[in-house]
Amino acid sequence: MKADDNRKLPLDDDLILDGEPNKLFEYIRRLVKALTGNYVHLANIINLNDSNTTTSISTTGAGHITVLPWVYSSITQGTFIFVSDVLAWSHFYYRNGGTQDDRINYSVYLAAGTYTLNLLHLKTNNSGIIDISLDNYATSEGTVDAYNASTLYNQITTVTGIVVATAGLYTLSLKVGTKNASSSSYFMLLVMMSLFRTA
Prior knowledge:
This protein has helices at residues 21-36, 40-43, and strands at residues 46-48, 55-57, 64-67, 74-77, 81-84, 92-95, 102-110, 113-123, 129-134, 139-145, 152-164, 168-178, 189-197. It is mainly beta. β1 (46-48) and β2 (55-57) form a beta hairpin. The chain has two domains: 13-57; 64-197, Galactose-binding domain-like (Jelly Rolls, Sandwich), CATH 2.60.120.260. The protein has two helices and 13 strands. The protein is 10% helix and 44% strand. It is globular and about 50 Å long.
């Protein structure tokens, strides 16, 4: 604010000190109102509900989402760990224990449209075929065969044509249910994944 602006900032401690997200957002809305004279900016971003206990976001991923493998919402089966490896991009990868049907899930907000998924991963002689699904495993969007006779680092495999009919929160799931006949196990070695809206 300018020095000669006599509008009072909404410094109401009970909005921010009790740890409730909605009250913090309400404080931010009041701050924007004091600075700009309207609520338009945050009203387009934050949707405060009547219960005053949870916060929902009215905008969804509208073009590009990067998902780091350890930022998962749940693990349906298996144990996943960090592996430090200087040959891998960022010097690490995230892997399961090599058991068939191991599955890891990620919550992502997606706008309606068609997406391409880029999976950055390793290929090894003991990796499985990664099945990628969206919307709580309802439909397989594609598979990634992560087998190779010798280890290949920093491989980018693309899955195209992922259709999202309605904007909202989805479960992006990676599962190793099958494997190449030449593979000795069901590992998936994940570095990063990205979703790009193409239409």
